[in-house]
Specification:
Distance between the termini: 42 Å
Number of domains: 1
Order of helices and strands: HEEEHEHEHEEH
CATH topology: Glutaredoxin
Shape: globular
Number of strands: 7
Strand order of the largest sheet: 2-1-5-4-3-6-7
Oligomer: single chain
CATH architecture: 3-Layer(aba) Sandwich
Number of helices: 5
Structural class: alpha/beta
Length: 172
C-alpha cells in the first residue's frame, strides 16, 4: 500500500490547491480581519439548485457552519460526507450548513455534489470574492457562526464530524 502523501495524485492536487490559494490570497492588498465574537461579512450567493441566499439576513437566529470547498480538494469530499449526519441531527435545533464552492462552474459543482448525496445548502462563489473577503487560504476552511451572526470558530483544513458536533452543541 502506497502512502497517500507519496502518491503523484496527492502532489498534483496539493500544487493546484497552493496555486489557487495564492491567487485568492493575492487578489487584494486588504487583508480580512475576522475576529472571534465579531460579525461576519455578509454576502449574497447563488444556490446550486436555484435562487440565492443572503447571509446573514436569511439566517438570523441560526447557528451557521460556512465551509469553503472545491472538487479538486483531496480532503473536501470525505469531510462533506462526514458532516452530513451532524447536519441531519442538528438542523431542527437551528444548525445550517452552507457549503460554498470556490471558483468552479455550476456543472462541475453539481456533478461533485450528486456523488455525495448531501442535503445541506450548496452555494457558488464563482469569482472567489467571498472566499477572499473571508481570508480563505486553504480548502477546506470552515467558519462556525453563532446565532447572533458572530464568528465563533475558524477551522483551517479538514475537520471531523466529532469536532463539528462538539462546537455546534455549545451554540445550540
Amino acid at each position: 500500500m502506497v502512502n497517500f502523501i507519496q502518491s503523484p495524485r496527492f502532489w498534483r492536487h496539493f500544487t493546484i490547491a497552493v496555486l489557487l490559494l495564492m491567487t485568492v490570497a493575492g487578489c487584494s492588498d486588504e487583508s480580512p480581519k475576522l475576529i472571534k465574537g465579531q460579525p461576519m461579512p455578509g454576502f449574497i450567493l447563488d444556490r446550486l439548485e436555484s435562487g440565492s441566499l443572503d447571509f446573514p439576513n436569511a439566517l438570523r437566529g441560526k447557528v451557521v457552519a460556512i465551509r469553503f470547498w472545491a472538487d479538486w480538494c483531496p480532503f473536501c469530499e470525505s469531510e462533506m460526507k462526514n458532516i452530513e449526519p451532524v447536519y441531519r441531527q442538528k438542523q431542527e435545533r437551528g444548525l445550517v450548513i452552507l457549503a460554498i464552492n470556490v471558483r468552479q462552474d455550476r456543472k462541475t459543482a453539481a456533478a461533485f455534489i450528486r456523488k455525495l448525496n448531501i442535503s445541506y445548502d450548496v452555494l457558488l462563489d464563482r469569482d472567489g470574492e467571498v472566499a477572499r473577503r473571508y481570508g480563505v487560504i486553504a480548502l477546506p476552511t470552515t467558519f462556525i457562526v453563532d446565532r447572533q451572526g458572530n464568528l465563533h470558530t475558524r477551522i483551517l483544513g479538514e475537520s471531523t464530524s466529532e469536532l463539528l458536533h462538539k462546537i455546534v452543541e455549545e451554540l445550540l
